[in-house]
């Protein structure tokens, strides 16, 4: 063989190997163990092709429309969050009525349950404690992309009604009497729809870790018109039934997440469980425990300011708008299930007015869905004033891409924040997904702190 032929042979061989390695790489798989020991799982948008086995038929291409339609469900999310009052059963789980996916189901991860592990998709939710999965044999469940089969797991067991776990899931059957048998419960999820589940235990496998005897609900049937979400739910709240409480020896009650940007539907962010590998350089604010709503991650928001440098104005909000109140549950929470940041009505109005005052647009603002401060971005680009959230010990000046949402079809930008609905029973402000893009958010209940570090999440 002469040398040009050898060259071309090696060239094609190399090319073949390259193509093969791309084809075999599972872009949705969890990342390998990192050298730092960080325990990372990939997280995806619910509509991403990684969240289901088969790609959805219509992919959300337009970021603006996606955020617009997701944010429309925020009010029901806020009602859910405010219903999480200690000692009472939330009226409904955060499932948007008539939707294919849950209110909380913005981000999903891949986990395995049972022995051998069965692959499942779980929506991660910092506002829920309990976990549940659709179980095999549930004929009324939607054609799930993946369901869990208890008989195929050698480590599966049901939780007895007499178990201390049962009341934590507030199963009405168990509350009724000291019944024998397994703990069954019904969860309403909007309108007259509810699902029935059996409280169960099995080994939860998260990337390279195992949480033995993890307690979750196995959904057996669905009643009512509203379609149940296809994915299961992984509760990452602060309550006693959450993953964090059930894995204290493994993860010490510490985790962080970096949410993929809304612009990048095909990319993954990460959930990092445990204290190992968390960012060393991170600005933090105290994490507050509100006994009225013990599942939620509260921080002390003290003020909001608009603008930069000497032009920065601390927005005069009505006194008490942001106050943390253990009696009523009022305050500010960091949430992974609300799309855009929400402030109590009068505070939002004041923030918006100051923002509008500083945007050098023509003074014409329009409303679009949840957004009431949209302005044209043709011609001279208006100045975008910086929005800073002042938390105890930490000023969070949001990057422009976390403040505004752009529509390219009609050249338009909107302030990506809104007022909390009026019908929420105690005021709650929410620092939401859109404002958390490209931040690593550290929720460290062990050391009572919440950290924010800029990071490219995708
Ligand atoms: C759940 O609802 C079904 C149908 O209404 C009922 O038969 C069952 O007893 C309920 N279970 C519990 C635990 O409340
Ligand atoms: C929140 O910050 C304000 C202002 O610094 C302070 O007065 C208040 O005590 C703080 N609240 C909590 C619960 O830490
Ligand atoms: C506001 O918009 C209208 C219609 O688009 C336009 O005619 C008007 O000049 C605008 N006002 C200002 C102050 O630019």
UniProtKB/TrEMBL annotation:
Any one biological process term the GO annotation gives: proteolysis
Cleaved signal peptide residues: 1-25
Pfam families recorded: TAXi_C, TAXi_N
Annotated active site: 125, 335
Peptidase A1 domain boundaries: 107-453
Keyword Disulfide bond applies: yes
GO MF, one example: aspartic-type endopeptidase activity
Key words of the record: Aspartyl protease, Disulfide bond, Glycoprotein, Hydrolase, Protease, Signal
PROSITE patterns (UniProt xref): PEPTIDASE_A1
Xref: SUPFAM superfamilies: Acid proteases
Cited InterPro entries: Aspartic_peptidase_A1, PEPTIDASE_A1, Peptidase_aspartic_dom_sf, TAXi_C, TAXi_N
Recorded family membership: Belongs to the peptidase A1 family.
Protein name: Peptidase A1 domain-containing protein
Organism: Iris pallida (Sweet iris)
């Amino acid at each position: 063989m002469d040398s040009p032929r050898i060259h071309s042979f090696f060239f094609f061989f190399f090319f073949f190997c390259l193509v093969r390695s791309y084809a075999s790489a599972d872009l949705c798989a969890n990342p390998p163990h990192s050298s730092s020991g960080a325990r990372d799982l990939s997280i995806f948008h619910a509509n991403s092709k990684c969240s289901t086995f088969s790609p959805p038929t219509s992919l959300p291409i337009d970021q603006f429309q996606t955020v617009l339609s997701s944010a429309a469900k925020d009010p029901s999310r806020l009602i859910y969050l405010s219903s999480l009052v200690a000692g009472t059963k939330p009226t409904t789980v955060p499932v948007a009525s008539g939707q294919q996916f849950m209110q909380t189901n913005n981000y999903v991860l891949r986990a395995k349950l049972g022995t051998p592990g069965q692959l499942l998709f779980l929506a991660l939710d910092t506002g829920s404690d309990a976990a549940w999965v659709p179980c095999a044999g549930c004929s009324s469940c939607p054609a799930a992309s993946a369901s869990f089969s208890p008989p195929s797991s050698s480590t599966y067991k049901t939780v007895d009604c007499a178990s201390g776990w049962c009341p934590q899931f507030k199963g009405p059957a168990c509350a009724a009497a000291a019944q024998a048998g397994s703990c069954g419960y019904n969860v309403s999820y909007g309108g007259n729809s509810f699902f029935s589940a059996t409280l169960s235990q099995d080994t939860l496998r998260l990337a390279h870790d195992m949480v033995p005897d993890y307690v979750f609900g196995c959904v057996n049937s669905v009643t009512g018109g509203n379609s149940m979400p296809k994915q299961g739910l992984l509760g990452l709240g602060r309550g006693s039934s959450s993953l964090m409480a059930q894995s204290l020896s493994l993860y010490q009650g510490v985790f962080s997440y970096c949410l993929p940007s809304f612009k990048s539907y095909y990319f993954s962010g990460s959930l990092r469980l445990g204290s190992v590998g968390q960012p060393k350089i991170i600005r933090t604010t105290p994490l507050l425990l509100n006994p009225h709503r013990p599942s939620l991650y509260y921080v002390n928001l003290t003020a909001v300011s608009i603008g930069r440098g000497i032009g920065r104005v601390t927005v005069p909000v009505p006194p008490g708008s942001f106050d943390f109140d253990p009696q009523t549950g009022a305050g500010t929470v960091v949430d992974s299930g609300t799309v855009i940041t929400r402030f109590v009505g009068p505070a939002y109005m004041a923030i918006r007015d100051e923002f509008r005052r500083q945007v050098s647009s023509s003074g014409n603002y329009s409303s679009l869905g949840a957004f009431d401060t949209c302005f044209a971005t043709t011609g001279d680009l208006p100045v975008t004033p910086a929005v800073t959230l002042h938390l105890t010990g930490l000023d969070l000046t949001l990057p422009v891409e976390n403040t505004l949402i752009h529509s390219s079809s009609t050249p338009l930008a909107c302030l990506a924040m809104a007022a909390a609905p009026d019908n929420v029973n105690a005021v709650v402000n929410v620092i939401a997904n859109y404002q958390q893009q490209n931040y690593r958010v550290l929720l460290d209940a062990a050391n009572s702190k919440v950290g924010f570090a800029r990071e490219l999440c995708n």
